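Predict the 3D structure for this chain.
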Amino acid sequence: MYTFLPLKPTFLSFLATFEAGNLICALAPTSISFIIGRAVSGLGGSGLFSGGMVMITAAAPPRLRPTLMGIGVAFTAIGGVVGPVMGGAITQHLGWRWCLWIFLPPGALAAAIFLLTRVPEQTDKPRLHWVLPRLSQQLDMVGFALFAPACIMVLLALIWGGQKYPWSDKTIIGLLCGAGATAAIFRFWEWRRQDGALIPPSILAHPVVFWGCGLSFLQGGTFLFMGYYLPLWFQSAQQASPTSSGLMLLPTMIAQIIASSVSGGLVAKLKYHVEREVDGYQILLGVGRGFVLQMPVIALQSVLTGMQISIGTATTMFCQYFGGTVFLSIGKSIFANELISGLEKYAPGVDLEQILHTGATEVLKGVPASAADGVLYAYSRAITKTFYLPVVAAIISFFFSFGLGWDKVVPRRGRPGPPRCGPPGAKPSGSAGQATSKDDGSGCLRPLSIDERAEIIAVIAAIIIDIVSPTQATTWTTAGPVLAATQGSCCRRRRCRDDVAETTTESLWPEEAYRLSKVRNIGIAAHIDSGKTTATERVLFYTGRINSIHEVRGKDSVGAKMDSMDLEREKGITIQSAATFCDWTKVEDGNEERYHINLIDTPGHIDFTIEVERALRVLDGAVMILCAVSGVQSQTMTVDRQMRRYNVPRISFINKMDRMGANPFKAVEQINQKLKIAAAAVQVPIGMEDNFHGVVDLVTMKAVYAEGARGERIVVKDEIPADVLPLAEERRAKLIESVADVDEEMANMFLDEIEPTVPQLRAAIRRATLSLKFTPVFMGSALADKFIQPMLDGVCDYLPNPSEVINTALDRSQNEAAVKLEPYNSLPFVGLAFKLEESNFGQLTYFRVYQGKLRKGSMVYNARTDKKVKIPRIVRMHSNDMEEVSEIGAGEICAVFGVDCASGDTFTDGRLSYTMTSMFVPEPVVSLSIKPKNNKDLPSFSKAIARFQREDPTFRVHLDAESEQTVISGMGELHLEVYVERMRREYKVDCETGQPQVAYRETITKHVEFDHLLKKQSGGPGEFARVVGFMEPTGDVKSNQFEERVVGMTIDEKFLYACEKGFHLACEKGPLIGHKVLGTFMVINDGATHMTDSSEMSFKNATQQAFRKAFMEANPKVLEPIMKTVVTAPSEFQGNVVGLLQKRNAIINDSEVGVDEFTVWADVSLNGMFGFSGTLRAATQGKGEFSMEFSHYAEALPVLQKELIAKYQKEQAARNKK
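Done. Predicted structure below.
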């Protein structure tokens, strides 16, 4: 409920239902009405605790959630303390009805507070009248209808078995068999529904979820069981009154309150969750219960993401309540059987039925004095026997707790310092990489604002309501799902849509608004060979930028305009993103509107992914091209991730509609399913494959045809062919429904059954596209010159202009607070240098102007270096051609000469201290040694290397100190091959390259302690440093961590900084095979210094020596990069391709067989993929293709590890001999 409905109204509804149930119970004249009231109260109470958890997750940053959850559980425990004491006293002195009346005033007060409090929403949610008709589909009511009866039948069998009916009775056997059959049907249904199921199998299969549910079941049963039977024992064995029995529970409950609060705080401080439940009497029971109660939920948040957290938490909480109900049912059977046998033995002759149905406080009522002691002993003995059940459960849960692992809740930090943010490997521009948002799970921190603190206080107030909620001990309903804390990291994105207004158009001056409304900054991105450059060529032709069309691999040897490099024309691929601009005149109903389009054509090969990254970083929208036959392919998914990273709206264009096997609607479905974004066709084809000759515009319901030698003339007809009309009507209804799912205004019209007009539908598609919730899908064939013009109309209709995109900068004068950039020409200039190129006239720097104007001859300041630079020349780029201009306005893209900077630098006119966040830069995965064949070419070689590093952040160069070789690193073999060839062509430098080198990594696998002393005396000042501590794995292989825990100043602070520096230097070159170290955590907790001989150098060297020694003792392993590989080939070669992958020890994850080709997804080590391109071509007669991208590091095969270690030791021995 909390997932799909607004938090505040939903929570208040649960609260009102809970209070209404209590009122019914308080006024109940009969037991039936009392039972109805308890059912209503339980229904409402089931959402109170979970609602509080929902609002904690929505409002609080990850670093505070463990503490707040601990406080929430502590407040629940307070209710457990106050409830029995107050309930016992009220029952004894005022009557049981007052136990229900007392709930009403706190509930009314809480409702009044919440009515006046702003409760934050985790996500945008549609209105109730739109959600409610669809709620049953989202909640999997069929699954619930199967699940609930299965649980009820189990409970009835446990309650009736051995009491009302013998265990061998047909009723009990029927209930158990019915429960098993219903559960089997339920699991089949869940498997069929997959992620749409009530309990998705993929989540339940996660080890932490599985063990967490088991632990919650056991500890929930123990919690409720002891809370129920311990007071009974006090009241029977010790003849305590209800008030006294409540007071006797205080040690348990107070211990639980303290333990719950402390455990949450410990998780927040230590960043780890680990569970061990302790069972004992009173204090031990309360401490164990308090420490473990919230741990499964905290553990889930560290391993699950997105909506998985909601469902996983709901499942865990259900297991907790269900466990309590099951344990109470079993306990009742044990108690009844033991009591009957005890009474027959120790108090023969008493009325068994009377004692069984008498409360604990009145157990001796009507019992003869001579039998009283026997009855009390039998009663006490029966309750004592039931305690064996929670003892066994506690022991089992101790072992279950190991299944939750030892995982970080938020990233651990070592020495305090300025916060850092951005993706791994990203280098911030100036201080642009620092965080400006609250902790979002990516490691970006800042102090919470007043509003955020107020929200958290409101959430804590919600948890207080649990003090008066009885549902913890009486209700086993499924908890409301806790919303996942997956807020996007502001520091990774250039647009912070959650923190600033959705658009700035309304605040613009009319002339600025009109100018910007006619500007589009777009990119074209797609999988390899999907037709990006071919489509761009048609865009330039139809807009009049070029006079003739040339193909990518044309026979005229001219090549496409955007493929300006000779290498691009030869290989038939795009290597560098190319920028151009054009003007498009959109004609509709006789009216002409002229739009200015800045366009960037991007590469499709994964090796050149940085070109796509920096293009999308500065663009406002994109066209995602898909093949009509292949649909969504591997690089399509990579491009989708990049668009999401920078919040870029997109329209989709299904190309190659004239190919055999074209199926555009399959591609549309794949966009919905694989890319997880709502998509619907805005066109349907007239004819397919060879007969493709037109489309139907579903917005206007008109037929569109392309005429002329190059399809330059678009003809629109009102009449739609009869054979296409039913499909068009069906797809238009689908379009409206899809848009209604993501747009509130269209949803209202859809529910009211109002047919939208053309302007209304077009406006709704635009709103949904700009909000990143929808992508309209166009169709055509670029190579056949068909229907590129309607796609251009779609760019104008549905993609944003610069004023509709929220761009932010960081104000360094205001502690890097986020500020919104307004695209006014009159405001101070702010621009971003996003790409560098070397030309015949010097360095060419591509700029995106976000605010103000950039004028020729003006002075600008580099925010990273604080240097003043003059702009000597401004040009607009048209591939490799240039058009000089005197100024560029806000929202435009240009290039300048004579500016010395780095990619990602921010420039201002000096009046603002703004800086912008850098783009995501992936780490290189392939290296090889390189040197010029002739030493006379060294100057040109050095010049080329320096230029390529400036242009491409993924191209890295370093000098191997041991081999004295220059080593270049990149994203793949093709990436490095292109740069070697460019050196030969552009700098006339022939190079020799060594074998490709894999970027292996080293790590450790166990905890090792060290105590290392460095002591040297050589006549003068000596060296003395002692470091004591331990090293252990971090649990992942993404980074290394250093922490000092020195107590008592045994090591001076300045020496500790030297220790940290020594640690990071040691990680640069591991002692196993000489590669970088990952996944290592080093702690220094003691040491010693010398008054004169200790120095920073001594401690740095001592730390490095201790690191190397401890590393070799910690069972080190070699890690190799694993590549996510996708191979596509004709279906007849499927066996050959699978065989090739298996020879390389590939793990095949998925495969898909199409009409005439198949695709296989696999994880393969990079070392095994060298030379795969040639082997694949030979095995598929040149028809197969593959792509790969880095996925993760994994332990290398033992044989390979031995080879690498032996090779490294041999090289070291040979070097030492020299």
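The longest helix spans residues 307-346.
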